[in-house]
Amino acid sequence: MENYSMTDQKEAARTFLTGENFYAQQFLGCQKVTQDGKDAFQFNVWAPNALAVSLVSDFTDWTNGQVMEKNHDTGIWSCVNEQAQLNDFYKFKVKRATGETILKTDPFATVYELRPDDAACVYSIAPKKWKDGLWFGRKKRQNLFKRPLNIYEVHANSWQQHEDGSFYTWKELTKHLIPYVKDMGYTHLEFLPLTEYPLDASWGYQSFGYFALTSRFGTPEDFQDFVEACHLNNLGVFMDWVPGHFCPNDDMLAYFDGTAQFEYKDGERAKNVGWGALNFDLGKPQVQSFLISSILFWLDTYHLDGIRVDAVSNMLYRDFDQGPWSANVDGGNENYEGLHFLKKMNAVVHLKHPTALIAAEESSHQIKITGPLESGGLGFDYKWNMGWMNDILKFFEMDPIYRKQNFSLTTFSFMYTFNENYILPLSHDEGVHGKKSLMHKMWGDRYRQKAQLRNLYTYMTLHPGKKLNFMGNEWGQFLEWKFQEGLEWVDLEDELNQKMLHFTSLLNHLYKNEKALFELDHDPAGLEIIDADNIDQTVLSFIRKSSRKNDFVIGIFNFTPVERQHFKVGVPYSGTYEEILNSEMTEFGGTFTQGNPEMKTMDLSFKQFSQQIDVLVPAFGAVLIKPKKIITRSFTGSKKENQKGSSKENPK
C-alpha cells in the first residue's frame, strides 16, 4: 500500500502484534512510497529479537547493505530506499539473537527468484479490471451446498510438460488445461499448493512464500488471467494451502531472528518429524495475522473460489505427529491454539468472502470440522472423507472372492455421511509412493481393472458428497504419478484408454445434469437405501433424490465378476423406468452392445418398497436408472401420473 501515514503504520503494527491485522502484507515486506517527492520503496521486516538487520540487494551492497532501524515497541525493522527498481532482488541480513549473521528472504514478498534461488523480488502486482462479475454474481444468488461440485485435482508442474521437461506456463495452461477440463465436464480445478516453495519433490507442501505465487509458471498477472478465463468458462478454482507447517530451510522462515519466531518455543512442538518441517505457533498473535493475511491475499488477489487447508489434524492434535508429545493443560491431546486459530480463520474468511468454500483435509472424528461455529463446528464448509476413501480403495483392491465378507466397506460410510459436509477424494496421495495408481489397484486383468474403475467412479458419483479426482485417473493411467514428469498422455493412443476417458466425461456431464446427484448431498432426505444387505451376491443398490418427489436416480453396483440376470430391485413407485447409464457398454470398453430395455414395475414388495423391477446387472457393472413414467400419490392420496422431469410434481 502506498504512502502509509505514521498513524497508519503504528495502527498496522499494533494490530499485527495483537493478531488482528488481516492485510499485513500491505504494511510488512516491500511497499512503494513517496519520499521528498520521489518514488521509493520502504522495507519492513518483523524480527523482534534480532541484534541488527540490513537490506542487501541488487541496489545496495550485497555484503553490508543498508542498515535498517528497529522500532523497539513492535520489533519491526525499517528502511526506505530510492535506488530500488521493480524486479530487483533483495534479502535481509539478520544478526540473530545468537550472534550468528545470516541472509534471510522476505516472508511477505509477492514474487521470488526461480528456484533454487530464493531472493525476494521488488514487485507490485498490476491493478486488474476483472471481467468475472457475472460468475461471482451467480455464486451470491446460489446455495453452493446444493450445487454440483466435481473437482479435477491438478499438479501444475506435471499435468503436461514440454519435450525438454520444462513446465507449461499459465498462458499455455489457459490454452490447453481449461478447454480440457471444461470438455471433461468437471466444475472446478484444484491446484496443489502454488505458494512459493524451494523443492519440486515437496509438490508445494513445504512452502516459505505465503504471499507469493510460485515463479515456475509465470507472473501473478498471468495467473490472474488464468483464473479469470476459468470463470468465464464456468470453472471454479481452488488451491491447497498449508498453514500448519513450513519449510525448515535456514534462509527462510525458520528461527528467523534466532529465536522461535514463527514456530513453537517448545522444540518438540516446533518439530514436525513426519514431514521434516517446522510447525507454526498457531497461538502467537503475529503468526495468526501472518496466516490469515495470507489466505485472504489469495482470495482477494487471485479471485480464488476456495481453499483446501492441508493437514488439519496436525493443527488439531498434539499427538498427531511421530515422536514424543505433551498433553494440554487439561491432560488431553487437543491443540487448543490450533482449534482457536482455525475458528478465527474461518470466521474472518467467511466475513470477507461469504461465497468462498474452505475445505479441510482431516482424517479424525473427534472434533466436528464443518458447520458454523455457533453449531459446534470449526467453521469449515467441507471436509475430505478420508474414511470413505480408505474403505472403498481397500475393497476394490481385494480379490472378489473375499468381498462378500468385507461388503461393509462399501456401506459403512452411509452411517456417517451426513455428520459432516463431505468431499469424496480420490486424490494425488493415493497414486504415489508405491501405493499404485487407481487403475493398478483394481483386481484382475486389464479388462477387469477398467470395468471396476468404471464401477468405482459411478459409485462415487452416486454416493452423497461432492467429488474430487486426481489428474490421470480420468482414463486410468496405469503408472504411478511422477511429479517430475508429465502425465502419460501417450496412453490415449490406446482404444481402451480412450473409451475410459469418454466414460469419465459422460459420467461427469451426467452428474452435472442430474439434480438428484448433488442437490441434497448433505441432507438425509437425499438418500434411500434399497439393499445394503445382499452380501452373498455382493450387489449394492440405493437411491439418490432431489427435492422433487419424482426426480431420483437408482444405482445398482455389482462388485463381483458374476453377471446378475433377472436381478430384482425395489422401487418407490409403479410405472416404467429407464436405464441412463450402463458401465459395461462397448462404447466405454465393456462388452454390452445394448443395455436394459424399458423396465415395468411388478406389484411385488421388496423390503420397504411395494414395487420391483427386473434388471440385468453386468459383471463388475454399475447401472443407473431413472423413472420414465411413474404414478405417485399427492398429499391427499390421489394418484398422479408423472412424466420424467414434470414441473407439476408436488415436492417431497
Low-confidence stretches: 634-639, 644-652
DSSP helix fraction: 10-25%
**Would you state the CATH class of the largest domain?**
Alpha Beta
Secondary structure: number of strands: 31
Global morphology? elongated
Rg calc: 27 Å
Number of helices: 13
CATH superfamily of the largest domain: Glycosidases
Number of domains: 3
Per the CATH scheme, the topology name of the largest domain is TIM Barrel
User: How is the biggest beta sheet arranged?
Assistant: 8 strands, parallel, barrel
Please state the average pLDDT score: 94
Strand order of the largest sheet: 10-11-14-18-19-20-21-22
Tell me the β content: 15-25%
Class computed from helices, strands and strand pairing: alpha+beta
Distance between the termini: 54 Å
Using the 3D structure, state the CATH architecture of the largest domain.
Alpha-Beta Barrel
